[in-house]
Write a structure and sequence with these properties.
about 65% helix, Arc Repressor Mutant, subunit A, about 110 residues, alpha+beta, 6 helices
């Protein structure tokens, strides 16, 4: 089965590490492309390409001010990603609890010996 295009939905778009980096960077505040380039150490054409993908799936919004273009995250579009990953939170917490219990049991057995 062929993989869906990165522009088909938010899940495919964030499968690329650099796009996640851009979203993380934009989470704090609205930024211009040049700021993203400088902060993330990426080439401008690559940043523009990734922003286009993120914009096409609705994960970022664009605001123009004269010749300047500013990008910011679209929290409403990110919500489905968050809700989906949240379904696994119980699993992660359960695994962490098991690791903690094992470590505590090991420590206790060492103290009693």
């Amino acid at each position: 089965m062929a993989r869906a295009a990165t522009t088909s939905d938010a899940f495919n778009a964030v499968a690329e590490t650099r796009r996640r980096d851009i979203l993380n960077y934009l989470a704090a505040q609205e930024r211009a492309v040049g700021d993203i380039v400088l902060s993330l150490g990426m080439e401008q054409p690559a940043v523009s390409k990734h922003l286009r993908v993120l914009r096409n799936v609705g994960l970022v919004r664009v605001r123009r001010s004269g010749r300047h273009v500013f990008y910011r995250t679209n929290a409403d579009a990110i919500r489905p990603l968050h809700e989906w990953t949240k379904t696994f939170e119980r699993l992660w917490q359960h695994q962490l609890s098991r690791v903690k219990e094992r470590a505590e049991a090991k420590q206790k057995s060492l103290e009693t010996t």
